[in-house]
Specification:
The chain is α/β, with parallel strands linked by helices. It has helices spanning 6-16, 20-23, 64-72, 84-89, 107-112, 128-131, 134-139, 152-166, 169-190, 216-223, 229-232, 235-238, 242-248, 262-274, 283-286, 295-298, 306-317, and strands at residues 33-35, 41-44, 50-53, 59-61, 79-82, 97-98, 117-121, 144-147, 197-204, 207-210, 227-228, 252-257, 290-292. It folds into 3 domains: 1-30, no CATH class; 41-172, Rossmann fold (3-Layer(aba) Sandwich); 191-317, Rossmann fold. The strands form 3 sheets. It has a 5-stranded parallel beta sheet with strand order 6-5-4-7-8. Strands 9, 10, 11, 12 and 13 form a 5-stranded mixed beta sheet that branches. Strands 1-2-3 form a 3-stranded antiparallel beta sheet, with helices on one face.
Amino acid sequence: MKVKSFWARLPLMLMAGLLCCALSACSVDDNRGEQGETGGYTFTDSLGREVTVNEPQRVVALMQSFAEVWLLAGGENSLVGVTDDAAAELALSPDVAVVGTFMQPNLEAVMALSPDLVLLSAESSRTDSHLALLETLNAANIPAAYFGVTHFEDYLQMLEICTEITGSSAAYQQNGLDVQTQIAKIIAEDKRLDAPTVLFCITYSGGVRAQNSATMTGKMLQDLGCRNIVDDYPALLQDFSMEKVVEVDPDYIFVIPMGNTSAAAEKALQDTLTADPVWASLSAVQGGRYFILPQELFLYKPNENWGESYAYLADLLAEK
């Protein structure tokens, strides 16, 4: 929570007159955190829990993007443990321990590091294993902070909390507020006034998953003025129908092919989507408005590169 300054309250003090002394004390916004009576920092996590930390020096992050957010917040000297996805993708000190996988973090390995803050995922649909750690961490008096990050606003809120903990306002400005300004400019300049229809989906070895505007990339497309056909036909979420896609004939198609290698991703795309005989009949395909999106910007959390993700989509939407 941001502490409101004396000057921000000055107009109210002049109006009230009698409350000068009282209003000179700090009040707090109820969305972030505040300095506790004992000097710690208290904030509300994504589960609605109040969490208090006191200058943590041993932080464990149980998700790659959360480890990255902590580093972006200026916490590189206090990160002591991560899951294997972070170890594989981030340039970390060899002293940083690996504590299992994102889906199955190793509690014993976490506890062995004697952490004074653990960052966990609040997305229970995929990470029940994270929620299962809460009771043990509470019993050991280890602060556990759960975050759910889907959209840029979620990232910005988490980054603000983390930079409040690390005390790095410069990191919040550079990796948060400056990116917010970049995104706002892109939306203002590139928002589609004609509301083009779009299909956004993910292909994998087992099939196709259509995505609505509640997803990370779906929200970006919506912010840029697009109309997602899955929002109008939610049955596509459960039962992807090429027949319905052909009927609606969206203006643009965006696809993220999943796979551990580019060959696997291409095979998933071919097997589940482009091999369908009617695929070539879609106007988006015929008009060159069918795009494969890079995983690093649209499948994984882009964090400080969120502005780049918006810019990438805006450029594609400029294609006629």
